[in-house]
Write a structure and sequence with these properties.
21 strands; three-stranded antiparallel beta sheet; about 30% helix; alpha/beta; elongated; about 625 residues; single chain
């Protein structure tokens, strides 16, 4: 009997056994089809059932009926989930059952909260909370009374239900979120926005992105008090600057986030004066008609004690040089912004230089600056501001890319995530180097403490002949301000350029250029690295300032078997120079393209090829190369 039902899959199964020690097992035909007397049972775990049966006093016949409930609750109440044993009955299991209506309101709200988390995306987008509200009257009243706790609101967005459909619902907060990027906004959507903004006492969040012509219409009803508005974001998609401004009578006492792009603030910043809870302020794409001097901004910032993020960006280079004299701040103590953690700016250097002299930011964690290109940069006050701001560290990188040069300082993991990020917008590479040199010279105190420096270039979008625009003196001027650098990393694309620039260091420049340098890291094999930088290493040793060369191959793992390369591709590279007279300087940019085309797995091999190609192209006539190995054999 027992061997037929003992299975591991029965874990959690409850078997029926007799509670009383004396049970008659005399067959009674009237009781069941086998003529056995049913045993009165109670719920026990199936584990140990053989021992329980063995405790039953049986007559000579041991043929009796055993009821087992597998995978579902037994119809008898004794098989329901039992309560823990009590002191009076330590081995007696008592099952119980209750209805959800017996739960108190707090328990129901906790269950509703879990339901909201499981349907977080559609909780308000598809009004999932309405399913719960339709269960019964009690739930409906409880949900509507706890709308704030359950984060319930009415969302007006593209293709959302009409306002008439939502009119029977209670006065829940309104969230207006419309984007017109795809130009699919209908007249119904425009009507929703207009009607939603008229419900000024219910609006919690407004996010509008549309052309200035539509924004001008929607800004008209925003000339009153919005007591519940927490987030206001208005973005004009117009490329040219506009004269749009927020209504002067707009009041938002509970505003937390304000983001305006191409939309100005009225004179005197009355909106900022009406709130003290603002934590994020972003004013970008500011035009000439909505320009404000830094002093006026600082006056309003001192009334925002909770401000954590500040972004200021101009659409054009303003103020003009003829008006820069009016930026000089009044001789007053600087305003302390106690909670500011991130400052982002885009514009001319003179504006931010006059802004930071008027503020103190003891908790600043991230400073991101983007400058328009200028012939000269004046950053005296900015240098002092950065120098007294702790945490920017002694690690920096200078990166050149398609649209400008970036200088990052502080600890960073991915590119461009330094605590200090300064970028100059300009496209020609020699202009980028000149701008980076001026900025580094202007930030003398900041760059002088840098001990680890990385130089790199992002070739995406760069002209094919970018290396022909550089001169060794440009590299010397860029490196001169970094007097404290002990470790220099050179990116793979700049290895040859920097090797020639450092090789040309001579005379008094040997002692002035990177005087504290101890380690030089390059992405080459050790033999090629020694060959390329041997002159610089020997020059440093001759003046008693040796440099240890750190060769870091680009591929840290084993390369797979090299595939056969297309002969036409190699022939196209090999025949670009046909005679020694035409090959005074072989086109390395073609091999850099080749290096990128063959993939990262072969980048190390491609860099190695570059080191031998100068000799090869001087000697080679038109040749057809069928593989990488054939090209490598020419070295020997």
């Amino acid at each position: 009997m027992g061997g037929n039902i003992v299975k591991e899959s029965l874990t959690g199964t409850y078997c029926g056994f007799c509670k009383r020690p004396l049970v008659s097992t005399v067959p009674r035909p009237s009781r069941n089809r086998r003529g056995l007397q049913p045993i009165v049972t109670e719920g026990y775990p199936w584990i140990g059932w053989e021992w329980l049966i063995g405790c039953l006093p049986m007559p000579n016949s041991v043929d009796f009926g055993l009821c087992v409930c597998v995978g579902r609750a037994a119809p008898d109440g004794s098989f329901l989930v039992p309560l823990p044993p009590t002191s009076e009955q330590p081995g007696y299991s008592v099952a119980y059952r209750t209805h959800i209506h017996i739960l108190d309101n707090d328990s129901l709200l906790q269950i509703f909260g879990y339901y909201r988390l499981e349907h977080k995306e559609n909780w308000n987008l598809r009004h999932m909370w309405r399913k719960l509200a339709h269960v019964c009257r009690r739930w409906r009243y409880l949900i509507y009374d706890s709308s704030s706790h359950l984060d319930m609101y009415l969302l007006l967005t593209n293709d959302s239900p009409s306002m008439d459909t939502l009119s029977h619902l209670p006065p829940l907060p309104l969230v207006i979120d419309y984007s017109d990027r795809t130009e699919t906004m209908t007249r119904k959507d425009e009507g929703h926005i207009h009607l939603g903004l008229q419900q000024h006492d219910l609006v919690r969040q407004v996010i509008l992105e549309a052309p200035s012509s539509r924004l001008r219409i929607w800004l008209e009803p925003m000339n009153k008090l919005f007591p519940r508005l927490e987030h206001l974001s208005i973005l004009s998609t117009a490329v040219d600057e506009t004269d749009l401004t927020l209504p002067e009578t707009l009041e938002v006492p509970d505003l937390r986030r304000l983001s305006l792009h191409g939309i100005g603030l009225p004179t005197g910043f009355p909106l900022l004066s009406s709130t003290i809870a603002l934590s994020t302020l972003s004013l970008t794409h500011i035009g000439a008609s909505t320009y404000f001097p830094p002093g006026d901004l600082v006056t309003q910032l001192q009334g925002l004690p909770r401000l954590e993020e500040l972004s200021i960006g101009f659409a054009i280079p303003i103020p003009l040089p003829s008006s820069e004299g009016r930026l000089l701040p009044a001789p007053i103590p600087p305003v302390t912004l106690p909670t500011l953690r991130r400052l982002t700016y885009r514009g001319v250097d003179v504006y931010i230089d006059n802004l930071v002299v008027q503020i103190n930011t003891p908790l600043l964690e991230r400073l991101s600056l983007t400058f328009f290109f200028d012939l000269t940069f004046t950053l005296v006050n900015l240098t002092e501001f950065i120098h007294r701001t702790e945490g920017f560290g002694d690690v920096a990188q200078v990166i050149f890319h398609q649209y400008g040069a970036s200088i990052d300082a502080g600890y960073y993991e991915p590119r461009g995530i330094g605590k200090l990020n300064l970028r100059v917008n300009c496209e020609p590479l020699d202009w980028q180097m000149d701008a980076a040199t001026q900025v580094c010279n202007a930030l003398g105190k900041v760059v002088s403490v840098v001990e680890e420096l990385t130089l790199d270039l992002d070739e995406d979008g760069m002209p094919s002949n970018w290396e022909n625009t550089l001169d060794n003196m440009l590299w010397h001027d860029l490196l001169l301000p970094f007097i404290g650098v002990k470790k220099l990393h050179i990116g793979s694309l700049l290895t040859l350029e920097l090797s020639r620039a450092l090789e040309s260091v001579a005379g008094g420049l040997v002692l002035e250029l990177l005087p504290e340098l101890q380690n030089l890291g390059v992405q080459l094999e050790i033999d090629d690295a020694k060959k390329e930088f041997s002159a610089f290493i020997e020059t440093r040793e001759s003046v008693g300032r040796p440099v240890h060369l750190l060769a870091v191959p680009s591929i840290p793992y084993a390369e797979p078997e090299a595939p056969q390369l297309d002969a036409k591709v190699l022939q196209g590279y090999a025949t670009t120079v046909k005679t020694p007279k035409q090959s005074s300087g072989f086109p390395r940019h073609l091999f850099l393209k080749y290096m990128n085309n063959i993939g990262k797995l072969y980048r190390n091999r491609a860099i190695h090829l570059i080191s031998i190609c100068r000799t090869f192209f001087i000697q080679a006539e038109e040749q057809t190369l069928r593989s990488h190995d054939e090209l490598m054999s020419l070295k020997e």
